């Protein structure tokens, strides 16, 4: 019993703290497109284009891809195969987007802002457009479907270049660092997202589903999206204002509608104090009980129970008794019986 009471008290405290929602922050630290970020974006874009050029020209990077593929890492270290099968899920778009959206949704509700969710939506939209267009445009085949040894396997209808798992891991986990509220949290989350995304990319190489160059290009593609997000901040702010405006209009429209009563209430005639009470008329049998029950709510003079005139209820089979007297009056003396 004591343990249950302590648990109940702790749960009450937790829910009490959750009910005290903080006010919306007056100033939210929004990353800006600084000179340092522009330099990083330019360097990452140059790295992206260099990888594409190295694959198109069938340079040393293509030979490295084939060497890693023939090495077959999944045969060299089979004991970690089961673990990496689960670890690679951290790069799949569906599960990771649901987990991150749940956390950002909680943060949006607590801070009274939808900017975290809008930022996640904008980053995923950019990811689908840019990485999807690159996959379909270059059409590279994966290691399991390679046709000619030593070729770059470009333009053959594949969708493996760049690695979608790696780019998705960079964007999905990197958005947590992008939206961090303190510089220390931003540094730790940036390092964690970088290690996680690079590990997901190397896992795809281990499983043989991607070339090594696919992972490098996917890592660069995801980083480009994170670095370009400050350019989308004005559009995100406008979208947030539009959503709040729609919410306020919906609340105002909902507040102006007055629901009609389910049961119509008939007006009640009140008599002044001191006037004799009249015999209430019998109500038809078809009248509803709800309409009769609302009469006692009307204000009026209150009479004592002993002063009320006995009335036979409507619909009763018992005939009225004329010899009944109100309470409090003296009973008349009985007439003596006389012999005839």
Structure description:
By secondary structure, this protein is mainly α. The chain is built from 12 helices and no strands.
Helix vs. strand class: mainly alpha
Q: Terminal Cα separation, in Å?
A: 84 Å
- Portion in strands: under 5%
Classify the helix fraction into a percent range: 55-70%
Rounded to the nearest angstrom, the radius of gyration is 40 Å
Give the overall average pLDDT.
77
Note the total helix count. 12
Series of H and E elements? HHHHHHHHHHHH
Summarize the structure.
Helix content is 56%, strand content 0%. By secondary structure, it is an all-alpha fold.
Summary tags:
340 residues, globular, mainly alpha, disordered C terminus, 0% strand, 12 helices
Question: How are the SSEs ordered, and which strands pair?
Answer:
Layout: H1 2-19, H2 35-56, H3 60-71, H4 73-76, H5 81-87, H6 93-111, H7 115-138, H8 164-178, H9 183-207, H10 212-228, H11 233-256, H12 289-293
Helix pairs in contact: 2-10, 6-7, 6-8, 7-8, 7-10, 7-11, 8-9, 8-10, 9-10
């Amino acid at each position: 019993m004591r343990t249950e009471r302590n648990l109940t008290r702790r749960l009450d405290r937790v829910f009490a703290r959750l009910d005290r929602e903080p006010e919306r922050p007056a100033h939210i630290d929004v990353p800006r497109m600084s000179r340092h970020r522009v330099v990083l974006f330019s360097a990452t874009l140059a790295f992206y284009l260099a990888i594409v050029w190295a694959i198109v020209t069938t340079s040393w990077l293509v030979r490295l891809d084939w060497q890693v593929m023939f090495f077959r890492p999944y045969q060299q270290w089979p004991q970690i195969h089961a673990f990496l099968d689960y670890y690679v899920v951290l790069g799949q778009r569906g599960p990771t987007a649901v987990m991150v959206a749940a956390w950002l949704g909680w943060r949006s509700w607590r801070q009274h802002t939808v900017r975290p969710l809008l930022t996640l939506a904008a980053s995923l939209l950019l990811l689908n457009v840019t990485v999807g267009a690159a996959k379909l445009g270059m059409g590279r085949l994966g290691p399991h479907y390679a046709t000619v040894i030593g070729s770059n396997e470009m333009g053959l209808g594949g969708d493996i270049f760049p690695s979608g798992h790696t780019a998705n891991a960079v964007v999905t986990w990197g958005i947590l660092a992008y939206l961090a509220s303190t510089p220390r949290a931003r540094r730790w989350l940036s390092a964690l997202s970088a290690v996680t995304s690079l590990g997901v990319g190397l896992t795809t190489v281990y499983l043989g589903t991607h070339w090594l160059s696919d992972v490098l290009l996917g890592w660069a593609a995801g980083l480009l999206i994170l670095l370009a997000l400050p350019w989308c901040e004005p559009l995100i702010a406008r979208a947030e204002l539009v959503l709040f405006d729609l919410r306020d209009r919906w609340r105002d429209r909902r507040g102006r509608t007055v629901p009609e009563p389910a049961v119509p209430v008939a007006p009640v005639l009140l008599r002044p104090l001191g006037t004799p009470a009249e015999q209430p008329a019998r109500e038809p049998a078809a009248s509803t009980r709800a309409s009769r029950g609302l009469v006692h709510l009307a204000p009026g003079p209150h009479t004592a129970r002993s002063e009320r005139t006995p009335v036979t209820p409507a619909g009763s089979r018992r005939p009225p008794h004329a010899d009944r007297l109100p309470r409090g009056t003296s009973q008349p003396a009985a007439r003596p019986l006389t012999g005839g």
